[in-house]
């Protein structure tokens, strides 16, 4: 966790707005930039703000370091258990994360709890996004409530949304897009990267639930954001649009056209990713089969 993110977490836990905290000390924009973009904050200014929060500066930096190291270890252990499909270990992690969230109200632990629960459910043969959404309404409501209350998103909020996007309704996703797009399309580089990743995830969300009419606009926005470092946005969004056209009724694209957009992954030696995209298309074809009966796969 960056120092700005840690500061923001402490401020929000105490229910103090940026404006109220900075009144008579510094400009609100100074604190906002520090919390959300990782800019430098002098020790003197940081001390004054922490005093108003009733937190000692040495306690703040000590807590920040310990918190980061602990969370990094816990997340690494969860990933290892997921990769090895160790469901017994994941179940233990899940209960531990839920207990930590209950005692600290730190939403990071709830996020790990949700990821653990999702993986355990996905290991069952009858898993579908729709069924999971129906049986986990309370958890999904908490995710939405958290995302709604955070005014300026950091990497963590985008990760929460990206990992759970399948369980939100379209209206919520569109509200998020409208809210974020005003600030992130023309923001600093790392915020554009976060927003671009969100748009790409939204494209896959629209494919999953049949909102094919929205994908062309998402592709347009991703092309505007793309540069040489994230050229895969153009590749993936072109693939998404072609697949949407293929799945529409009547179809205006073909299997060959859809797969031609991702052929570059195979040419670059990314055979696993290429095959995953092929499998993904096949799964969606089968899922939307009621719109696909009139033409050959």
TrEMBL record:
Domain HTH cro/C1-type: 7-60
PROSITE patterns: HTH_CROC1
Xref: Pfam families: HTH_3, Rgg_C
Species this protein is from: Alkalibacterium subtropicum
Stated name of the protein: Helix-turn-helix domain-containing protein
Domain of life from the UniProt record: Bacteria
GO molecular function annotation: DNA binding
């Amino acid at each position: 966790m960056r120092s700005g993110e840690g500061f923001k977490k402490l401020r929000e836990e105490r229910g103090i707005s940026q404006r109220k905290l900075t009144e008579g000390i510094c400009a609100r924009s100074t604190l906002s930039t520090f919390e959300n973009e990782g800019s430098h904050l002098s020790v003197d200014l940081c001390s004054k703000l922490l005093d108003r929060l009733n937190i000692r500066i040495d306690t703040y930096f000590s807590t920040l370091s310990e918190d980061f190291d602990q969370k990094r270890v816990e997340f690494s252990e969860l990933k290892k258990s997921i990769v090895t499909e160790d469901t017994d270990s994941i179940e233990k992690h899940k209960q531990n994360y839920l207990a930590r969230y209950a005692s600290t109200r730190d939403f990071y632990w709830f996020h790990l709890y949700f990821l653990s629960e999702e993986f355990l459910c996905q290991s069952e043969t009858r898993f579908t996004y729709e069924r999971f959404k129906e049986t986990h309404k309370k958890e999904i409501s908490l995710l939405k409530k958290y995302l709604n209350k955070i005014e300026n998103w950091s990497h963590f909020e985008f990760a929460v949304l990206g990992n759970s996007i399948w369980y939100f309704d379209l209206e919520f996703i569109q509200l998020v897009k409208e809210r974020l797009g005003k600030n992130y399309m023309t923001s600093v580089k790392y915020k554009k990267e976060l927003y671009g990743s969100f748009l790409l995830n939204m494209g896959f969300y629209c494919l999953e639930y049949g909102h094919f009419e929205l994908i062309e606009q998402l592709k347009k926005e991703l092309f505007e954001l793309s540069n040489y470092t994230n050229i895969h946005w153009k590749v993936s969004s072109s693939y998404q649009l072609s697949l949407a056209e293929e799945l529409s009724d009547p179809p205006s694209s073909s299997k060959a056209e859809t797969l031609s957009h991702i052929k570059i992954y195979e040419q670059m030696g990314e055979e696993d990713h290429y095959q995953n995209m092929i499998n993904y298309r096949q799964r969606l074809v089968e899922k939307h089969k009621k719109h696909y009966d009139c033409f050959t796969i």
